[in-house]
Structures are given as C-alpha cells and as structure tokens.
Specification:
Layout (H helix, E strand, L loop, with lengths): L1 E11 L2 E6 L15 H8 L7 E5 L12 E6 L1 H34 L5 H26 L7 E6 L1 H10 L5
Antiparallel strand pairs: 1-2, 1-4, 2-3, 4-5
Helix pairs in contact: 2-3
C-alpha cells in the first residue's frame, strides 16, 4: 500500500469524504526563491483536489470532520494506471503515424508521406487521449475499491488535543 495523508471533510453514515493534502516543497521549504519547482508552481493556479468518498466501517472509531487520516492506494492499481497513462499516448502516436504513412502511400501513391504520418500521429494521439478520458470517467466510481482509509492519524489528534490545552 502506498500511503497518503488526507483530511476528513464530512462524515455521512458509514462513509467519509476526504481530501488529500498537497505534498509539495513549493511553499514549505526554505529554498522558495531558488527552487525551480516553486517558481513554475507559482505560474499556474492550484487545482482543487477531488473529494474521495470512502468507507469507514472498518475503523476502530469514526473520524471527525477536520481530522487527518492516512489513506492507502493499492500499488498494483497505481502501477497499472501509471503504465496506461504513459503507454497509451505513445502507442496512439506511433500507431497513428504508421497508419497515416501506410494510408498516404496507398491512397496518394506518393514517395514522401510525411504529411500522412503527421496527421495520422495527431489522430492517434487524440484518440488515445479520448480513450483515456472515457476510461477515467468510467472507473471513477470504483475508486473506493482500490483506495481506503487505513487509520486515523494519531499524531494529528495528539497535536489537536495539546493545542486545546487538554493535556496534563
């Protein structure tokens, strides 16, 4: 399991809506001005993170809104989808270029078929992006099968209690 911290936004029945916490050195480290990643990150607005609706029945207690939890994602699921994100556009680009080249040779009977290869590669690339978008929308409902709340973060709870002045 790959672990990530998240914050509970709401609890409804036996499910909790959680939002992952941004993990970036862009605003947190001492090298803010000299960090290339931080400079690039400032050029683009931060995207809102999607809420995950996850079951909480297996936890020893119900998490409270605002509490930090540790979520886990199945490594096989992550590796499989990462592979698809990189491989599908590359395959679409190459297969489209080969198909466009072959089609230009057959239809146009030209010696040079660069235009056919270029147009075919763009068509293959855009088709692969469309397929990946469709696949992502179809699989979005099944995210809770591969992502789950592992535990309530005890260090965050201890800090919250200490900040309230409830310690001995």
């Amino acid at each position: 399991m790959i672990e990530q911290h998240a914050r509970v936004v709401a609890v409804e029945g036996d499910r909790a809506k959680v939002q992952t916490e941004r993990q970036s050195g862009c605003s947190g480290c001492s090298a803010k001005s000299g960090c290339g990643t931080g400079v690039v990150a400032q050029l683009f607005p931060t995207r809102s993170r999607q809420l995950l609706d996850l079951p909480i029945g297996h936890l020893h207690r119900r998490p409270l809104p605002g509490e930090r939890v540790v979520i886990g994602i199945d490594e096989g699921y992550l590796y499989h989808n990462t592979w698809l994100i990189y491989a599908a556009p590359l395959a679409g680009l190459l297969l489209g270029a080969l198909g466009g080249d072959a089609l230009a040779r057959a239809v146009l009977e030209m010696g040079t078929t660069e235009l056919g290869a270029i147009l075919g590669s763009l068509l293959g690339l855009s088709t692969s992006f469309a397929w990946m978008g469709h696949r992502a929308r179809r699989n979005a409902a099944r995210v809770s099968e591969n992502v789950r709340i592992l535990r309530i973060d005890p260090s965050a709870t201890a800090v919250a209690i200490r900040d309230l002045g409830l310690h001995a």
